[in-house]
Design goal:
- The protein has 208 residues and is α/β, with parallel strands linked by helices.
- The chain folds into two domains: 6-78, Ribosomal protein L30/S12 (60s Ribosomal Protein L30, Chain: A); 83-205, SPOUT methyltransferase, trefoil knot domain (Alpha/beta knot), CATH 3.40.1280.10.
- It has helices spanning 12-21, 40-48, 58-65, 87-96, 109-121, 140-146, 161-167; strands spanning 6-10, 26-31, 53-55, 73-78, 83-84, 99-103, 126-130, 154-158, 173-175, 201-205.
- It has a six-stranded parallel β-sheet.
Length: 208
């Protein structure tokens, strides 16, 4: 059986939020002496579930996370898999009148993390990306820059952005920038139908 790849999560806020919300995701945990007392309860939970953890030196944390910005903490989780967006999920978005974000080839993992952090802050729980090698995927830096936002936001991919955006026309409000746009940003009040019923909406963000 092929062993699933793991991903290092580092940075204080990222690891703290992971430990508080989804500790069951942690496969291995490493920390420095300064963080030992604060994460004692997590270590106790990990010990109960026979999950390995260890106090190590800073240079070891750098090797484990492949980053200088680990902030004394590294937790390994199973490498996240981004789910393909299904028609059923789109219908669910519509029923729940969700706020969504579509990213058009954001190629930097740090920038992806920053967008996820902002989305989580504003209560946006779903981000859609294209299946394209130019599009950044989830990396260690994504988790670190998201500062815990990864625990609250789900990512989905679509094979054809053009088809997806055309398919949701009239069903989900699409908000983006266009040089030939006929509406102004001040016209976003059309998110509400004449009856005042709020609809699902999608903000489209371009690349760097």
């Amino acid at each position: 059986m092929k062993q699933k790849k793991s991903l290092a999560v580092c940075g204080y806020k990222a690891v703290k939020t992971l430990a508080n919300t989804n500790p069951e995701k942690i496969l291995r945990f490493y920390y420095d002496k300064e963080r030992s007392s604060e994460f004692g309860m997590l270590c106790k939970k990990l010990a109960e579930n026979k999950i390995p953890y260890n106090q190590v030196e800073n240079n070891e944390l750098e090797k484990l996370s492949k980053s200088l910005h680990h902030q004394g903490l590294v937790a390994f989780i199973a490498e996240p898999e981004i789910e393909q967006l299904s028609k059923e999920k789109v219908l669910e978005f519509m029923r729940n009148k969700e706020k969504l974000v579509f990213l058009d080839l954001v190629g930097n993992s740090n920038n992806l993390g920053a967008i996820i952090r902002s989305a989580a802050f504003f209560g946006i729980r779903h981000i859609i990306i294209p299946e394209d090698e130019k599009q950044a995927s989830i990396a260690t830096s994504t988790y670190r820059v998201a500062q815990g936002g990864m625990e609250f936001v789900s990512l989905y991919f679509v094979k054809s952005p053009e088809f997806f955006l055309q398919d949701i026309a009239g069903k989900i409000i699409r908000i983006g920038t266009d040089l030939e746009a006929k509406k102004n940003i001040s016209d976003v009040s059309h998110i509400y139908t004449p009856q005042g019923e709020k609809k699902a909406s999608l903000i489209i963000l371009g690349n760097e």
